[in-house]
Amino acid sequence: MVATAEKAPPGTTAVKRIGLGGGLLIALGAVAVLAFLSIALGSRSVTLQTVLDAFFDPTATSPDLTVIRDMRVPRTLLAIVVGTALGLGGTLLQGVARNPLADPGIMGINSGAALAIVGGIMLIGVQSAAGYVWFAFAGAGIATVLVYGLAATGRDGATPVKLALAGAAVTAVFGSVTSAIVLSNVDALNEMRFWQVGALSGRFMPVFWQLAPFLVIASLIALFAGRPLNTLALGDDVARALGQPVALTRTVLFALIAVLCGAATAAAGPIAFLGLMVPHLARFICGPDYRWILPYSALLGPVLLLACDIAGRVVVAPGELQVGVVIGVVGAPVFIALARFRRLVQL
Amino acid sequence: MTAKTLAPPRSFRAHRRRRARWGLALSAGLTASVAVVFVFSLSFGSVTVAPTDVILALIGAPAEKWHTFIVQDLRLPRAITAPLVGAALGASGAIFQRLLRNPLASPDFLGVSSGANVAVVAGFALWNLTGYQLSLAAILGGFATAAGIHLLAGRGGLSGHRFILVGIGVSALMASATSYLLARSTVSDAKAAMSWLIGSVGMAKQADIIVLAVALAVLLPASALLGRRLRVLELGDGTATALGASVRRDRAILILAAVILVALATAAAGPIAFVALMAGPISARLSGGAGESVFRAACAGAFLVQLSDLAAQHLLATPISTGVVTGFVGAPYIAWIIVRANRSGAA
């Protein structure tokens, strides 16, 4: 369990630091390229010139430009912030729970947020995203506390199996209550079944502006969590001996996870497996130091989400696969492979 | 001298006899209570028919002509589906839990139900299947998923945590496939499929009921007989093989029976949450010294679904789905089981 700590070098050498920094730049470039592709590709084919016009010529108007400005740009921006939030949320979760299979989707956090949002809209009548995002935070927070609390009490702490089972149980309960609420209203059902898959389409600029502040601020704070996560990785006893207020750190990090995952769910529906894959990819690139894992996760999250969103548009063109389905198809095998081939408790 | 050496076996045998007698009495008692609730569920409703009149109407000698219509035509299908579905779920849950040696291992979480779900929703929404065809689709879906999980979990994977984790991963994948199917179908199909996904014994068709009844009549005695061997299998693969059990064959037959039962119950009434999870432990708790038995688990499951369905029909002003009631009963039970398992260090 302390293997992580042994591998983590006390001070990364200068060469390595430059290499990792360069890697971050490459990842940033990948985000930019994918963002451009996400704007350019879709069921309506658009020329390069039109894309450039949409940005640099505010006076020009045409149907193509409308598609780009009103549909593809908000969708792409949402994919970037949601990807960052879910990537960071998954990393924080795996770090806090010290559990390689922790994922906001598997652990039921996203489904908690989904239930709270559906309840807020249907039972209390909240209309705007800025209103129901608070319900999402509350739902995500309650689910996090519930699942982690259930799994972590006891001698051997939150083992992957207990965490996954608790998450599956909570997801099942929340899911059935959500559909029971939704079933009472056909319009809501019609709306909800698209959102429930996890989709980026049909979200317009207002949604982005309402949710982006939460997502961006929480992501920025999360980027500074590297040091405490590194300490927590040593185990509670060592962390305490090193002067870390373990309970407080955990509480703050869980609150951060709830905000990240709740807002992401409010924006794009309950997306599973993204938060699982991103930290493993990042760890594969930069090793066990969370000060590097976090920025990498923040960039790899949008890379993965944008790639899956574009793939969903290209594969079944002119139709569209929701991004949640694509992520599920890509992510479930990763989860299974991790469960199957890795020695389980490694974090 | 001889009396002394003979005494322990005799008392041991007496103990076993006592245990067997207690087990038999318990099974009879459970069966009787299922029958009593069955009559009650036929007598309550918008018009109350006295229990004696119900029995008269059932055997074809009604006190009043309209009794036959109310009892046999209106209430009988639902009243008979509840115990059948419950028995199927209870038996298969008990088999899964004992084979995997984990109180949380139930078809709800392991992907078997979710595989059947996908198959039924796909058959319903894409190919307009009905009746027997849907039952067949559920069986195929359940099997394909169970086989896939078994393959993915790998050698010796049935015992232990890996099977459960892989099952949860597959289950999440199936859930996202289901929501995708919901999103791409028409609104009315989506509504029907979604209410089916919550699970209610009220919507079983006659074809489903007949198939389920036949399957139960064959598989319940078979698995109850094989279930006696479960005690050997519970000792672990190595010990069981050493004791002469043909581990692979017994396990394969039991799993086969369990999957068929779950799939058929799901085809008839939708995935009624957590009954498979709760029935086994409840019957084990009741049995005390008599040990666990698949038959008693089936009775407990039947009883549970009957009571839940009565509550679903009569507790609130408007009737709700059975699955919502069992979900609400099951959620705290899961919490309790995780906490308790943590205390004893298992799970």
Automatic annotation (TrEMBL), chain A:
Gene Ontology MF annotations: transmembrane transporter activity
Protein keywords: Cell membrane, Membrane, Transmembrane, Transmembrane helix, Transport
Compartment(s): Cell membrane
Membrane-spanning ranges: 20-41, 76-93, 105-125, 132-151, 163-186, 207-226, 252-281, 293-315, 321-341
InterPro entries: ABC_BtuC-like (IPR037294), ABC_transptr_permease_BtuC (IPR000522)
BP terms from Gene Ontology: siderophore-iron import into cell
Membrane topology label: Multi-pass membrane protein
Keyword Signal recorded: no
One of the record's GO cellular component terms: plasma membrane
UniProt cross-references to Pfam families, sorted A to Z: FecCD
Source domain of life: Bacteria
CDD domains named in the record: TM_ABC_iron-siderophores_like
Protein family membership: Belongs to the binding-protein-dependent transport system permease family. FecCD subfamily.
Name of the protein: Iron ABC transporter permease
Organism from which the protein derives: Actinorhabdospora filicis
Lineage, uppermost ranks: Bacteria, Bacillati, Actinomycetota, Actinomycetes, Micromonosporales
From TrEMBL, chain B:
Main location group: membrane
A GO molecular-function annotation: transmembrane transporter activity
Topological type in the membrane: Multi-pass membrane protein
GO biological process: siderophore-iron import into cell
Listed Gene3D superfamilies: ABC transporter involved in vitamin B12 uptake, BtuC (1.10.3470.10)
Cellular compartment(s): Cell membrane
TM regions (residue ranges): 21-44, 79-97, 109-127, 133-152, 164-183, 203-226, 253-279, 316-339
GO CC terms of this entry: plasma membrane
Protein name per UniProt: Iron ABC transporter permease
Organism taxonomic ancestry: Bacteria, Bacillati, Actinomycetota, Actinomycetes, Micromonosporales
